[in-house]
Amino acid sequence: MRNLNFTLVLALSILFISCDADNELKSDFEMAKEKWQSYQFEHYTVQENLSCFCSGLLEWTLKVTNNKKDTVYFENSKLYKGQTYQMVLTEAKTIEDAFEFIENFDKDNVASFNVIYDEKYGYPKSIAIDYQKELADDEITYIYSNFIPLSK
Q1: Residue 130: enclosing H or E segment and its boundaries?
Q2: CATH number for position 86
Q3: For the chain, counts of helices (H) and of strands (E)
Q4: Signal: present as a keyword of the record (predicted)?
Q5: Residues 113/128, Cβ–Cβ less than 8 Å
Q6: pTM for the complete prediction?
Q7: Quick one: pLDDT at residue 80?
């Protein structure tokens, strides 16, 4: 009877530990997204920077109105060969787009994928991707900063 109780307690412990491990893998993303959604921001500006060994405009501020991309602000002189306002607006991500990007990204086919979330609002502050560990200069980091909630 004692062995049976010990076995039962051990089995339940392993079950709870494995459930906790699964929750930890999802918890940062889920908690951050829930925090972000709890504020119900519909209007805001956020600065997005791309840190990479790539060409083109790498920094802009996006104005979001009614949860839709409204306007993108950037220094025109930094546009790269044929790049247009519309191309930058299309590339810019709302916070909701950033969460969708994180959720749908194929993390199994990269060397590393790390996200840091804003403690107050929950939005992703940094999404760092290293595609191949042994390859230099293939990393890209999306940085979100200067978030400002707006009233309509």
Answers
A1: strand 124-130
A2: 2.50.20
A3: 3, 6
A4: yes
A5: yes
A6: 0.79
A7: 84
